[in-house]
Amino acid sequence: MRTLLLASVLFAGLMFSSAVPLSLPIPYHAFCRVMWLFAVPCDEVSMKVAQQIQAFYPGYKLVSASAMIIRANHTSLDGLQAENITFTFNPTVETGGCRAGGQSVSLGFTSLLDNGLNYCNLYNLLSVSGLTSSLGFMEITNEWACLGYGQNTCKASPALIFK
Prior knowledge:
With 163 residues, the protein is α+β, with helices and mostly antiparallel strands. The chain is built from three helices and six strands, in the order αβαββββαβ. Strands 2-3-4-5-1-6 form a six-stranded antiparallel β-sheet, sandwiched between helices. Mean pLDDT is 80; it is low at 4-12, 14-22 and 157-163.
């Protein structure tokens, strides 16, 4: 019972928290919303995300970056798909860590089931930057918050990885 209650609270927090703005995607557009927890400070997390977005140029383009929010665009290599990406960062007072939210929304009229493309837009940035193996990393999402999450086959293209 306690696990069910905790899962419900986490899901409600993902859907309605200030970690990800409440701008819900336009219907018929694929989207993904994810929340991550880190045991490292938000400035470190946001810096790594911004650096990785810049390293993935021209596929990813940094639109704006501050300590609390990063906005970027993603365009597929063939130019046929485009998505708006937003990351938000909120320090966790008790642990000195960071709660980060991510959202990727397809701009074109696409199938709602994008095979995890929007999820991979977010996950690849975290994975290649090393954040998925950082201290205290935890990811919270599901098929309701992230369409196609269960079908994702995220693999960062070698052409996009810069160290």
